[in-house]
Amino acid sequence: MDPRIRAAGQALATPSVYADEERLHQALGLLRRQAPVHWVDAPGYRPFWAVTRHADIMEIGRANRRFRNGPRPVLMPAAMERRAAAAEPGLRTLIHLDDPDHGPLRAVGADWFRTRALGDEVRGRIADIARRRVDRMAELRGACDIAVDVAHPFSLYSILSLLGLPDSDYRRILELTRRLRGSDPDAFLAAQAGLFRHFQAVATDRVSRPTEDLASYTAHARIDGERLSSGEAASFLVTIATAGHDTVASVVSGGLHALIDHPEQLDRLRDDPSVMPSAVNEMIRWVTPTKSFMRTATEDYDLREVTIRAGDAVLLSYASANRDESVYTDDPFRFDVTRSPNRHLSFGFGPHHCLGAALARMEIGAFFAELLPRLRRIELAGPPVLTAGTFVGGLRHLPVTYELNG
């Protein structure tokens, strides 16, 4: 095997590579061109197939009976996999589930997101949280870290509001979520258990004291006439709290970074707010906050003259699909707030398409709709710092200086 291709495959199992966008996209580009279905045997990880082309990832997404989420839904070191498998038995989030369990539980959330998440009340609350974060930028007098001071508080306070949780939960949920993204198995398991217990208590409380929020809706949801157990409800709420927080925060900070790097695109969006929907989609493509998911083949499957054997694990690289030259023929590495069509796979594809995709777009749009009319100037004040991680990631730090109106 060409040693360059071997190294490119192993890069996908190297957390630090994801903190170096140039290195990551060099590896992904080489794999797309020369080995789009590539066997990766990286030190410290169980082997897997890396799938890097947009069309192939969509094909596997459609074949959900032939490629299952369990038992290996995300890429992690083998030692952490073993520890996680023996950990909290009650925690089974949507990303761990396949049918017949996945569909009914997903339907519970889909109903709420369809009927309530994009209603005027929720939109108003999100807009108010966005306004408070931009007000906070004004209080910081022209210098802040967008990731730390703005993006993460905006996304997490938004999630807390949807769940009906007090702002006092912010620090605890933030810290537990951060520990989930680290490489320390003990910290990971402690954070996982802490989140599960926290939301199990929330779900139990909502059964006896119902309210008008997503946590209460989940606690009282039924499947085939039976109310969800506290463990099932807690697992669902953990999914919402963690996935909804990290991904939106990454796009808010990464999207602003892209606008700073492309001032003509910032001017275009500021001058014509009607392009906001396409701009949000382009930010989501550009950042790709969820870098990959894993699937496991249930039977032999041929893909691009390669046979994936039953039991083999497959990594679906969304970061690669969103830069696929065969899809983005006008230059996948050009940031364009008017890009259309934009068939990015940042929310996945198929039955496991992100449940909160429309809500995430609304939140991101609400933030920029609040910020841009008040923004007179913005510049980097230091080097941006990306998260080192193979699953979910974005900017850890984005130091900026700026001037605001009001």
TrEMBL record:
It is an enzyme of class 1 (oxidoreductase). InterPro entries: Cyt_P450, Cyt_P450_B, Cyt_P450_CS, Cyt_P450_sf. Its EC number is 1.14.-.-. Coiled coil: none annotated. GO terms for biological process: cholesterol catabolic process. One of its GO terms (molecular function) is cholest-4-en-3-one 26-monooxygenase activity. Keywords: Heme, Iron, Metal-binding, Monooxygenase, Oxidoreductase. PANTHER family: BIOTIN BIOSYNTHESIS CYTOCHROME P450, P450, PUTATIVE (EUROFUNG)-RELATED. Belongs to the cytochrome P450 family. This is Cytochrome P450.
